[in-house]
Amino acid sequence: MIGSKIRKIRQEKGLTLNQVANITNFTASYLSQIERNMTEPSISSLRKIAQAFNVPIYFFLSDEDEEEKFFIKTKDRKIMKLPKSNIFYEFLTPMPNEMDWQMKFVSGYFEIKPKKSASKDFFIHKTDEAIIILEGTMELILGEKHYFMEKGDSVYIKENIPHKMINNGNSTVKGIFIISPPVF
What we know:
Blueprint: H1 2-12, H2 17-24, H3 28-35, H4 43-53, H5 58-61, E1 79-81, E2 87-91, E3 106-112, E4 116-117, E5 128-135, E6 137-142, E7 145-150, E8 154-157, E9 163-167, E10 173-180
Antiparallel strand pairs: 1-2, 2-3, 3-10, 4-9, 5-8, 5-10, 6-7, 6-9
């Protein structure tokens, strides 16, 4: 609700109802009714309140649940394991259907156990992908070429290029991927 958002930001900024009333030229009583969701402000009133808090007006009009979807705790990451695959993904960003943002991508964390391939088949998808290695070393096969990647190395893979990740080492490979546009 709009009122709950107004109260939350007012309290975060350490302002009293009387202080906001002085800034906006509204009464503290009117602002209190808005905060308690007893009345809804007009667009012009909401604009004055947004200016008082130095936030865009859409901050108050967006879906209440959406405002926190950008922040993902480690324990709350969505996990995906592909069939016939030795790799799992933890998504670091909201899924595309959860948000209406300008940037259209999915990013995630992955691990490949020692002496395993991410999958027995090559990955091929109609999307570009970037990978960065955080720990370990792995062999990356792009089409016919083989690359050996280690901590800090990154690669950009164009759409429809067959690729395969193989961990020939004795420690788990850990990395981050970004796919755009999202296919998950």
